[in-house]
Predict the 3D structure of the following.
Amino acid sequence: MRSKELCPICGGTLEETEVKEDIWIGEKLLVIENVHAKVCEKCGEKIVSYDEMRMIEGVIKEFERGKMELKKITAYVVSI
Ligand SMILES: [Zn+2]
């Protein structure tokens, strides 16, 4: 068990939650849902774990190849 982590910005309590990541790639908006993150109760600072960052990078790579093979996550593209 790890001790409770504190926000690096303000020292507030971090709560584990799921967030939605919006990533602009060129003129397209890639939305990845159910990203595990820790969000500060006080200032709202969002911290995404290394594993989640790798997962997001993987989705972006698949998107750039024009082939998204999604398994455990929800992601979609918003065209403008
Ligand atoms: Zn904070």
The domain at 14-79 is CATH 3.10.20 (Ubiquitin-like (UB roll)). The mean pLDDT is 84. Residues 7, 9-10, 12, 40, 42-43, 45 surround zinc ion (CB under 6 Å).
